[in-house]
Amino acid sequence: MYGQSRPPVGGASVRTRTFMLVTESRPRNLKWFHAGPLLYGDWGTSRLYVLGLAYAFTGPESVVYMVAIGVLMAAVAWAYAIVCRSFPDGGGVYTAARQLSPVASVVGATLLLCGYIITAVISVVEALHYFGIPDGPWLATIAVVTLVFVGLVNWLGAKSAGTFALLIAFAALAVSGVMAVLAVPYIPDGLSRVHLDLSRGVWSHWTGFTQIVLALAGVEAVANMTGLMKKPVERTAKRTIIPVLLEVVLLNVLFGIVATSLFATLPEIQSLPSPIASIDSAQLAAIEHAAPETAERVAQIKNTSMHLIAEMVGTNAFGAPTGVAFGRVCAFVFAFLLLSAANTAIMAMVSVLFSMAQDGELPKALRRLNYSGVPSFGLIVSLVACVAVVLIERRPERLAELYIIGVCGAITVTIMSCAIGRKIEVRPWERGGLWALGLFLLAITLTIIGTKLNATLFAGVVVAGVLVTRTALRRRAALATPPEEPHDGWLAQVKRQPAKLDSNRPRIMLAARGHSQQSYAVDLARKRGAVLFAIFVRTVRVLDLQPGQVPRVEDDREAQQALGSAAVLAHQVGVPFVPIYVTSTEIVEEIMDYTATFGCDTLIMGKSRRSLFARAVEGDVVARIADVLPKEIDLILRAGDPPSVNRESAPSQDSPDTPVAREDDDSVPAGPT
User: Fold this and answer.
1) What is the pLDDT of residue 249?
2) Alpha-carbon distances, residue 651 vs 233, 391, 524, 655 (angstroms)
3) To the nearest 10°, the Cα dihedral for 514, 519, 520, 524?
4) How far is CA 283 from the centre of its chain?
5) How far apart are CA 534 and CA 508, in angstroms?
């Protein structure tokens, strides 16, 4: 609230300023057993393509590399526990690096953007593979349609996506547990087949290791949750990280061992060279022509290894029909988990763009919010980037190369920022550990830059594009003449001198959107001698919203017009007026809260302007308010069609002291729905 705390409920002796900027702090209601599935939904999905790619790249040696990656994952998890402790209000790479320099934060955030772009693309492509859609001309089309659908869900700000992600994460944990139990008999044989070819040089093993370091993908998500975690954040973060770390590492190694046992027994694979990734495109085309079943097996190993493992262990345990059914169930669960990961990646992309735009590092259009509180232009940019990548490249092994540089680069920047930054309070031995780990990850990143030129080109183009845009914005800002503060305008009207409120007067609340309901609300308040309150709720639904990034009325032209037009009309006829600007994630709760808090006996809203699809996904705000509004508060709905009046009976229209919906009104609906 602008100037003081929220007034007591009931409305008596209310003291307030004319303009109240209410910025709702995010509730810290995220416990470790809530955050854990969210982290698993991001971190645990990498198994669905890492295992197959690891076997394809390194054959029986993949288990050794998976163990090494597990050790690295444990070290990175330890480092991120420190990151979470150091940044309890949200500590992703953008926040961690910004303490060093804005340029470092922009580079780190852009590398993270690269990772999110490929996360969304590879998750959608692999989800379609798990659904049973093979590589071919239709895959790109279906992938684009899927990305657009995910974008549409995000455009509407559907909160049900979070519940869906939790349910799918638990389902994936369940089927993975069943698979692990069925896979235990194959551990001895798998271990007997594991070997490391020491005749190859250190560089060969090092590059093989860096090829599957994308198993780290997703750990950055835990740092973005700290602003919602229960305090003490350090303890909640540790309890979140450790169970997910143990599940991911242990099952990655277990399924890697089992894959080594099962895949080696496949007759189609035994005649092929190991690793199978050494087969070039011409050889693979010849195999597809001469032995299509062999090519299909190769595709299954690379694209849907967990489906193949589930089907094989299920068949060996229960017989072919049950095994095939079990494999299909697991595949569908994993496919939905991957779609959930794609949705999270797109949301995270939008959040990173929004954060940088809020700090002036990117064009301000990226911070423009749609009705649902979603940065609309940022969402479009994110979808366009994903669609462009999926149209150019859909092979998981090639996408993985693009993936590694973004993920590893962002994690490196985060950890090195914490090691270098002297403002972060860490113990000397912790700082030494962060330095050692950061330099090791830097070596991996530099190796990828030197050996994967396509990944280097991809990340370089994106980083260069963002830095060039940032430089252009700053040069334009330096050349521009700062405009003088206007003497009038909507914002000036909103911030007019506070009205003196009489506690004996009736009170009316207007849910302000647009400018077509203000005249009626002011006229009703004048006739009743009432105080008019107007509330504008700006919903914000982005991830990792840092302190200082909450939208302000000074930057919200829609809010200025809605509240300012009511202020002008109220001033002209002498109606005491109180504008309220609220930033929150909940429209209904805020409107209800302030209507009751100020003791209003009437609430004026416009009927919903949202599409039927939008209301079905997100819910109808007017209907939800009508369901919970106390009977002593009249609800007036006004639109072109005959409006409805609150509760049991419609009061007389002749009484100036009784609120009523005028059925002859043809104005455009203006309610916040």
Assistant:
1) 92
2) 53, 61, 14, 8
3) 130
4) 41
5) 8
Cα–Cα distances (Å) from 506 to 11, 109, 327, 654, in that order, read 10, 51, 66, 18
CA distance 327 to 571: 69
Q: Compute φ and ψ for 638, nearest 5 degrees.
A: -130, 130
89 DSSP assignment: T
Locate all alpha helices (DSSP H) within 577-636, ordered by sequence. 587-597, 612-618, 621-628
- DSSP SS3 for 371: coil
Pick from 179-183, 224-228, 448-452, 669-673: least confident: 669-673
What's the order of all strands across the beta sheet hosting 531-539?
20-23, 577-584, 531-539, 507-511, 602-606, 634-638
Task: Write the pLDDT tens digit of every residue in 16-69.
Answer: 333 454 444 455 666 777 777 778 877 888 888 888 888 888 888 889 999 999
Cis peptide before 232 (omega within 30 of 0): yes
Amino acid letter, residue 547: P
CA distance 669 to 515: 9
DSSP state at residue 277: G
Encode pLDDT of 444-470 as tens digits. 999 999 988 988 999 999 999 999 999
Alpha carbon 244 to its chain's center: 19
Q: Which two tokens stand for residue 606?
A: 């416009």
Quickly list H helices, 20-61. 32-43, 47-58
CA distance 362 to 567: 33
Dihedral (CA of 645, 648, 653, 659) sign: negative
Total-model pTM: 0.75
Residue-wise pLDDT for 553-592, tens only, equals 777 778 888 888 888 888 888 888 888 888 887 788 889 8
Contact 518, 569 (CB under 8 A): yes
| Domains of the chain, residue spans | 32-474
| pLDDT exceeds cutoff 80 at 535 | yes
The token pair at 544 is 């990792």
Q: Which contacts (CB < 8 Å, 24+ apart) does range 424-427 have?
A: 424/86, 424/99, 425/86, 426/82, 426/86
Percent of the chain past pLDDT 90, that is, above it, reads 32
Nearest C-alpha neighbor of 212 from the set 51, 447, 412: 51
**662 DSSP assignment:** -
Q: What span, in angstroms and rounded, lies between the C-alpha atoms of 123 and 396? A: 9
Q: Whose structure tokens read 């334009």?
A: 476
pLDDT at 176: 93
Nearest to 23 by CA among 587, 550, 594, 595: 550
CATH number of the domain at 32-474, please?
1.20.1740.10
The tens digit of pLDDT for each residue in 329-356 reads 999 999 999 998 898 888 888 888 888 8
DSSP 8-state symbol, 610: S
Per-residue tokens: 560: 């200025």
